[in-house]
Amino acid sequence: MSFRSALILSTVLAAWSAAASAETIKIGVTPGPHAQILEAVKPIAAKQGLDIQLIEFSDYVVPNAALDAGEIQANSFQNQPYLDNQKADRGYKIEAVGLTVNFPIGVYSKKHKAFADIPEGGKVSIPNDPTNGGRVLLLLRDKGVIKLKDGVGFKPTVLDITENPKKLKFIEVDAAQAPRALDDVDAAAINTNYATQAGLDPVKDPILREDPKGPYVNLIAVRAADKDKPWVKTLVDSYHTPEVKEFVLTKFKGAVLPSW
């Protein structure tokens, strides 16, 4: 066998061996930025022997159920208050292993150019899950629209509103359906991933926008039993690379902010 043939054969065998030894994991994501960012992570992780398969979920409830049941090995779609709420309500043994990105939530309107233009008794839709719904109420409180009871933490509800000078009517809708509510309300609070799917610009279009700080940084979660496994470190390290940060900054132009 010639040297060239032997070199080609050894290269093919090395590639086959690396592919055969690669560990495959399934990661649950919501469509939009979370899925797009993980697509950028995949080739980086592949070089470290980790094969990532993405499973898209259209809501915020199923990804944790699927993770807890072992149908997927990780998910990337939620923030810590949401995870804490899910664990408290459902008993999931799931842990955060790394921070990802922040999506400042926005309030959008097709009828008004400013939140101050919403008339008395106007309708405002907010997500119906405790974390994101509470997040919007905190945003409205910080902007002086309403007042809330003291000590409400990160999960206030409409029942915690103590002052509502404009007598706004809060309509609770599933977060994924929020863009569809825009035609029927004066304003709708929409999470960034669903806003981008609906063709909205999360930087330019909101009439109110959350400050890019606080506890709402998103995270990668795994089952508690898996958190110390080598593939978890490979996954987080592959995500926390300069290449992925550059991708986020270039692709989303301020709508999504890296947290590392």
From TrEMBL:
Residues 1-22 form the signal peptide. It is a lipid-anchor. Keywords: Lipoprotein, Membrane, Palmitate, Signal. It comes from the Bacteria. SUPFAM superfamilies: Periplasmic binding protein-like II. It holds the Pfam family Lipoprotein_9. InterPro entries: Lipoprotein_NlpA. NCBIfam families: MetQ/NlpA family lipoprotein (TIGR00363). This is MetQ/NlpA family lipoprotein. It comes from Bradyrhizobium cajani.
